[in-house]
Specification:
The complex is a heterodimer of chains A (about 170) and B (about 250).
Chain A (H helix, E strand, L loop, with lengths): L2 H21 L7 H21 L3 H23 L3 H9 L5 H16 L3 H36 L18
Helix pairs in contact in A: 1-2, 1-4, 2-3, 2-4, 3-4, 3-6, 5-6
Chain B lengths: L1 H22 L3 H14 L3 E6 L3 E7 L5 E8 L7 H17 L3 H12 L6 H18 L4 H23 L4 H22 L7 H6 L6 H13 L2 H28 L4
Antiparallel strand pairs in B: 1-2, 2-3
Helix pairs in contact in B: 1-2, 1-3, 1-4, 2-3, 3-4, 5-6, 6-7, 7-10, 9-10
Classes of the chains: A mainly alpha (about 170), B mainly alpha (about 250).
């Protein structure tokens, strides 16, 4: 893996998340954690894509990492976790796969040639299911800490390495 | 006196619920916040939360009916500063026993909090789309094209929003105009990476909040709200897709 290329992508993941964070009008104190979380989640995805060759699994693990980091960030910066998590996972949204799916569907609607039809259908359905599963992986990853700890509020989740006042 | 207090608290709970719903919080968060505040004042709250209206019934500590009202929610504008502010406020109500008047003052203060300057919003969102282009494998010239297209597209979307155009139609027009700008520039500068500029320039429109909230609502058991949000997200995606497709067909890029 080319490390300069990797580091450059790290920055672009963060920049993309910051753009959406500002579009959603987050508090100013949350911008730096969002940048770092998006960059870390994005790098997990890139590393898994490089060594594991599975986009859905990589996205799921990246989103889970962002989900757990958002609980930490919520304790430090006093905002609900999803304020951090939603802007941070948006750079992982599979825009290009959605585009190829749509492009495939248009091509299929114009196609009258039987020999081209099957490979085209194959590609389109693969891209469509990838889009769907990546979107679900993102949503479940963000939600994972709440699912696993079965708490109502992030304030009740005891995080390791973090001092908390007992209630 | 007791009766007036229950009316004040009921109105406060409904206002908080409506603000959270319009700012993009998920249903479980609204339920928990409303229950937490009602409990700290000693009332028992039962509610029905939907996308467009919130129905609330308050019982006073003796178990008698104290308040019953329906309130329409506001237009959906993502505003996480409001969600964060109300979350902190609800914990302060529990910990410090704030009076109802103080809470109203705090809510008015949260409503008046300054947003980011418009130019900064436009520039950072356009930069985010350019970053998507780079992540998808585009080069720096394509990033510049994407930046210009998203900047103008978001500007048009905001203007349409001010004129109270149907939001889905606004998304459609914004997506169409963004991709048209990309396409027109693409005539002089042919894209090298399979129309990556087309795809990434419309990504500022993606309905991230409805789609993620829909899954979390469904998992919390608020299936009806989850389905409404999912449908909302799907219709926005469809609006983006149709704008994009028309531009692609015009430039024959398929």
């Amino acid at each position: 893996m080319d490390w300069i290329d990797f580091f450059e992508k790290w920055i672009w993941f963060g920049v993309a998340a910051i753009g959406f964070a500002i579009l959603f009008n987050v508090p100013k104190r949350t911008l730096i954690p969002i940048f770092i979380m998006a960059a870390l989640g994005g790098s997990v995805k890139l590393v898994l894509l490089h060594w594991g060759d599975s986009l859905v699994l990589g996205t799921l693990l990246g989103a889970v990492l962002i989900g757990f980091l958002s609980i930490y960030a919520a304790h430090f910066k006093h905002s609900p976790p999803f304020v951090f998590a939603i802007p941070a996972v948006i750079p992982m949204v599979p825009g290009s796969y959605a585009y190829y799916t749509m492009k495939g569907i248009i091509k299929l609607s114009n196609n009258s040639n039987t020999t081209d039809f099957v490979p085209l259908l194959n590609d389109t359905i693969t891209n469509g299911f990838k889009t769907l599963f990546i979107l679900m992986a993102i949503a479940i990853g963000v939600f994972a800490p709440m699912l696993l700890t079965r708490r109502d509020s992030a304030k009740q989740i005891k995080m390791p390495l973090l001092k908390q006042d007992k209630k | 006196m007791q009766k007036n207090q229950s009316i004040e608290i009921g109105a406060l709970l409904l206002e908080i619920g409506a603000l959270l719903m319009s700012a993009g919080a998920n249903t479980n968060r609204i339920r928990l916040t409303m229950r937490r505040i009602a409990k700290s004042y000693g009332y028992k709250a039962e509610y029905l939360i939907t996308h467009r209206a919130i129905m609330l019934t308050l019982q006073n500590p003796n178990g008698d009916l104290a308040f019953n009202q329906v309130k329409q929610t506001y237009a959906q504008v993502p505003n996480f500063m409001m969600v964060s502010g109300i979350s902190r406020l609800s914990w302060r109500i529990v910990d410090e026993n704030l009076s109802v008047e103080t809470v109203w003052q705090e809510i008015e203060r949260l409503k008046l909090l300054p947003k980011y300057p418009r130019l900064i919003i436009l520039a950072t969102v356009a930069l985010a789309c350019a970053a998507f282009c780079r992540l998808g494998g585009g080069n720096f010239t394509e990033m510049l094209i994407v930046f210009l297209a998203s900047f103008s597209g978001l500007f048009i979307k905001q203007e349409l929003g001010k004129k109270k155009v149907n939001p889905y139609f606004g998304v459609f027009l914004a997506s169409f105009i963004t991709t048209m700008i990309c396409g027109v520039i693409g005539i002089w500068y042919p894209f090298q990476h399979d129309n990556m500029a087309f795809v990434t320039s419309v990504l500022y429109l993606i309905p991230g909040i409805p789609l993620i909230n829909s899954i979390s609502d469904i998992m919390d058991g608020n299936s009806l709200n989850g389905i409404i949000r999912a449908l909302n997200g799907v219709v926005i995606s469809f609006a983006i897709a149709s704008g994009l497709l028309i531009a692609i067909l015009i430039f024959n890029a398929v």
